[in-house]
Amino acid sequence: MMFGMRVRGGLLAALIMVAAPMGGALISVPAAAQTAASITVEGNRRVEVETIRSYFKPGPGGRLGQAQIDDGLKALIETGLFQDVRINQVGGRLVVTVVENAVIGRIAFEGNKKVKDEQLSAEIQSKPRGTFSRPMVQSDAQRIAEIYRRSGRYDVRVTPEIIEQPNNRVDLIFTITEGSKTGVKSIEFIGNVAYSSYRLKDVIKTRESNLLSFLGGADVYDPDRVEADRDLIRRFYLKNGYADVQVVAALTEYDPDKKGFLVTFKIDEGQQYRVASVDFQTSIPTLDAASMRSFSRVSVGSVYNAEALEKSVEEMQIEASRRGYAFAVVRPRGDRNFEQHTVSIVFAVDEGPRTYIERINVRGNTRTRDYVIRREFDLSEGDAYNRALVDRAERRLKNLDFFKSVKIVTEPGSSTDRVILIVDLEEKSTGDFSVSGGYSTTDGALAEVSISERNFLGRGLYAKAAVTYGQYARGGSLSFVDPYLLDYRVALGLDLFYREQLANSYIAYGTKTLGFSPRLGFTLREDLALQLRYSIYQQEISLPSQLANCNNNPANSLLAFNPSPAFANLNGIDLTSTSGLGCYFDGEASLPVRKELQSGKTLTSSVGYSLNYNTLDNNKNPTDGLLIDWKQDFAGVGGDVSYIKSAIDAKYYTPLVADIVGLIHLQGGILNQFGGSELRMLDHFQMGPNLVRGFAPNGIGPRDLNPFGTRDALGGTKYWGASFELQMPFWFLPKEVGLKGSVYADAGGLFDYKGPTSWAATGEVNVPGCVPPTQATATTGPNPGTCLGLQYDNGNVVRTSVGVGIIWASPFGPLRFDYAVPLTKGQFDRVQEFKFGGGTSF
């Protein structure tokens, strides 16, 4: 029985051998006599015979069996060197016939305008002088198409063309039809009740296409960006108390009619939760859990905030590490009450696994120095592994804005208690050359050319040079910042500046300022920063000669101006007498201005500090949070002037209803004299629309009353301001237009001038009983009076106004248009109901 099966098996093998085509790529060859040395190779031109034979590995006894022949055949095909490989048996010998692939002579790209040849060449696998492979060429065409899709061009077509050349060579041409960018035509939200679609569009990065989309790229469809938007929406809801939120899907559909994508986010909001209780537990006997309460940013009764919870865990874990519990792990637990919509939070502090950092490997930084990256870590090799510190380092690296992407992962170390931190980075351009232009009713037309580098020499330094030229303002500046002074988390800044302010319709004089200011910055907390600074600058005033030629000294026989007989007597005042009042008739500048001009260049040396508290949700377009800026400067550390100047500015944003944002803005300041020097007019606060809209620059506060002079604003030593504003979108316009409207009411005051009021050198000294100047009336002209010194309006008048505005976050930069009507004002205030300001970088 067994014998019969063997016979049938032998006959079957013989039949297979006879039926097999002799020219096939695969053939069953008896594993009898063949060895690698007995293989005959035909058809090869460039590949050596021995190289081809080397792919056939003999089996036991140095013989080639069927399995070895099959493996050799597959190996030859996989080299990509051959179009065809055939194995035949001729007269007991194994014959390997090959047809070699052609060699690529050159590779060219045609039709590509948006992507350079160099970028495409780096992406494809086919190379000049390399082996031509049709599957590889097809793969390269797909790679090129993917490059265009990543930049938003989904209509791209890539056609490879092969041009035969002599000597088995080919030229490879990729013909590219780039097509137009494929934009996002609409963004819709389904399931959102608590927040409107208009509000949620502020949260995501993707934008809808509009007429000005060519100036940006946020409207170009990017699947990675859409997926990131899902996480942004989820985090936004979690931050605002919706603990059960789910962004179920982000659906994208290409619409051939609109030639763009339709993006739809499906959201399951759930209910908003509030914090019912906050407790602390620990399994570490020597650690008092209650002592961690001060590091919690979660309070009872507040809306549940996942972001505040994460920051609380981070700060608690870092504090535990500082106390010597290097392996402590803080785990938050939230028990939800679905009926009352509350969350009871418990922070559990436990002893974690004893794991150490073996190495920190940084990859992808071709330009940035390693130490610039490593200094953002609060741990190093050999330290206890602390996930909170690793997350903080990742956040810091992202905030540097040096990299397109930052990701820190862990890998097992050399033992079970060791881990390796892998920092994967993708660098991006950090240099910026910009030409900025703008116009405002205050400064006129203005242009600036600047060049800056955020990562100078790859050392994490910031450097900037700028030149400004405009109608009324000119100057230049050099800035340098080292964020890690002597390897400490202290920022050193150096500024050298020159500013020139020209006379205009708001001020009769010009100023030139040249100065230098070093500063030190400290980040006390994520929301609190301190800056210490020193400033030294030289300042001088310029005036046309006709505005500075007054001399009322009776001993002066050559008065600067002697009016004609027709004006010899005005309202009983003899203008040609030795009183010298006639010198004002040609429009003299105010006494403090001329006195400053006479003093020449003045040197100011001051030290100061600023405290900045910032909890805004968005620095560019805030809708919620508080911003407080408190600063003081002490002049008199050398120099020619001395004073103490204090100012505070506070803004509170809060969302109201239907995407309307409320803004309360409070500000105030005081200037105090100390030492023996007199306060200069230039050191006083000057206010206008920056305090109460509806008034001109330098339009409010104490003012020179001489009707024949330039009536300069003198400024004040005290000011206060309060404003309430409602900002609302134009719901009938697409979100991407970036237009918002505002209505507001302002109130404020500037008062208490304490500068010079007399000048003995020119005889401008008031005497008891002198007559102050008066304005012109319907029946009489202006009366200069008989007081020779400064006469000014110093009343503490409350200025108020109401107005409307348009705020445009345009591609040309932020623009704002305001129209305000003063309700109450001082007698000599100057009104400017319309104000416009804005600028751009391109």
Give a written overview of the molecule:
It is a single chain. The protein is an alpha+beta fold. 15% of the residues lie in helices and 40% in strands. It is built from eleven helices and 35 strands. The strands form eight sheets. A 16-stranded antiparallel beta barrel has the order 16-17-18-19-20-21-22-25-26-27-28-30-31-33-34-35. β14 and β15 form a beta hairpin. It starts with a helix and ends with a strand. 25% of the residues are buried. Residues 1-33 and 557-580 have low confidence and may be disordered.
**Number of continuous helical runs:** 11
* Global outline: elongated
Report the β-strand fraction as a percent range: 35-45%
Largest sheet: 16 strands, antiparallel, barrel
Q: Which secondary-structure class do the elements indicate? A: alpha+beta
Unreliable spans are 1-33, 557-580
Which strands sit side by side, in order, in the main sheet? 16-17-18-19-20-21-22-25-26-27-28-30-31-33-34-35
- The number of strands is 35
**Which value, in Å, is the CA radius of gyration?**
40 Å
pLDDT average, as an integer?
A: 83
The CA-CA distance between the termini, in Å, is 92 Å
